[in-house]
Write a structure and sequence with these properties.
Layout (H helix, E strand, L loop, with lengths): L1 H5 L20 H8 L5 E11 L8 E7 L5 E8 L2 E2 L2 E4 L2 E6 L3 E8 L2 E8 L3 H15 L14
Antiparallel strand pairs: 1-2, 1-8, 2-3, 3-4, 3-5, 6-7, 7-8
Amino acid sequence: MIARKLNQLSIANSDTKLPDQFPARFETSFRRLTGRETTVSWAAPCVSAKGKNLDPNRFGYLIATNEDLNKVYFVTKSLLGDWSKMIEVDQVTLEQRLLCEQLNLQSKGQKYIFKFDHSRAGIASAIARNLELRLAPVDQVPAVPVAAS
């Protein structure tokens, strides 16, 4: 993150379109977590910071599907095995830090933190907005009064 901060691209030109592809080497881990065939809504590269049963400083992808709106999946691999995790999101916040954008996810009283370097600030912001929309309760459409004749 320090190297990226020193060689930082213009944040104003950051891409805000959420990518929907991730490397094929993570496919098996992702399918194992979802347990079924799903379609990817977005997939963004990030680094884990902390969380229950989640090791810090793991490079991987945070992935959301079109089927499970309140769940995200963090897929990562290491030489020692698969460290992937499914997170049921209750609340989302985004913080700007000196070296990165920090996405905080609350899940059943646990906090999970994922970091995005400043060149991906637009993607981190778009993810936070997307997750807030996914978590928003579906508003009941008010009934339109029918005019009496």
